[in-house]
Design a protein that fits this description.
Blueprint lengths: L1 H15 L17 E6 L13 E7 L11 E6 L2 E7 L2 E7 L2 E10 L7 E8 L4 E10 L4 E7 L2 H10 L2 E6 L2
């Protein structure tokens, strides 16, 4: 009986999996969520501003079926910077130097997923990151990966611009 109780407590602790605060430092505050619309007319690449770099975040859903598809919000250096839903993209201008990126599912239906990365931005350069959600009967996985500029340009030309704003 004691063994069963110990196993139950260990199993419960494993499923709780509270994400340590320090590990999500690149993200923004947990309570921020976004409303996302897409602009089907926008498929434009923007050059970096003088003395800055540009970062594109592309959500590649692999489907056009949007029913119950979660929003993915992006954070950088401790602030949420925007969100994508389904197949969409947005970009932002960043200062040169090291930056820490966070992507997180904005969903109450799926387990919380966080992906982290960092990069060193150089003035005049453009960086592309792709997020994907992989779901099957037994797996829910959020992926964040840097992608080649040719692939990034192709996806920006293919997908609409994501226009996100924090919900109040």
């Amino acid at each position: 009986m004691k063994i069963a109780v110990v196993l139950l407590l260990v199993t419960a602790a494993a499923f709780a999996q509270v994400v340590p605060t320090a590990s999500t430092a690149p993200c923004g505050h947990d309570t921020v969520s976004f409303k996302v619309k897409t602009d089907q007319s926008q498929h434009t690449l923007t050059d970096p501003e003088p003395g800055k770099a540009r970062v594109y975040f592309v959500q590649d859903a692999g489907t056009t079926i949007g029913l119950a598809y979660p929003t993915v919000k992006m954070g950088m250096d401790g602030q949420w910077v925007g969100a994508n839903r389904l197949n969409s993209y947005f970009s932002l201008s960043v200062e040169p130097g090291e930056h820490h990126v966070c992507v997180m599912l904005q969903s109450s239906l799926l387990a919380q997923r966080v992906e982290l990365a960092h990069f060193t931005a150089e003035a005049g350069k453009t960086y592309y990151y792709r997020t994907r959600i992989v779901m099957s009967r037994s797996v829910e996985l959020l992926e964040l990966e840097p992608i080649d500029s040719d692939q990034g340009k192709y996806l920006v030309a293919l997908f609409p611009l994501s226009v996100s704003s924090p919900k109040k």
